[in-house]
Amino acid sequence: MLRYLPFLLVLALWIYAFIDCLNTPEEEVRGLPKVVWVIIILLFGEVLVGPVAWLVAGRNRRGPAGGSTPSEWHRNQRTEFVAPDDNPEFLQSLKAENRKDESLLKDWEADLRRREEELKRREEQSRSDEES
Hints:
By secondary structure, the protein is mainly alpha-helical. It has helices spanning about 5-25, 35-45, 50-60, 70-75, 90-130. It is elongated and about 95 Å long. The N and C termini lie far apart (about 80 Å).
């Protein structure tokens, strides 16, 4: 199994580079047209030249357009933590769920009572039929 590992790694890199190239917008491709990069990746994929060339030189690797990373944005956006017991929206949602559950339970209980009464009637009817 270990002897197949290098082949599988090359194949994985080849597939990753190919899909990455196809999904990259034309504006972000550097050096050559996108179609040429696809051909290079496919032709030279087995020797890793094509996929490595794409990953190193083919795509423009920049940070986000806004200039800040998600973690920087989160550092600047401080939110006040509210415990669930103090959050009125959360408490209202619990009350609504409680009402819905209670209504469902009442329906189930009524259905159970109806079925029990129906079963008793059937038993009484079968007893009266046996006596006759």
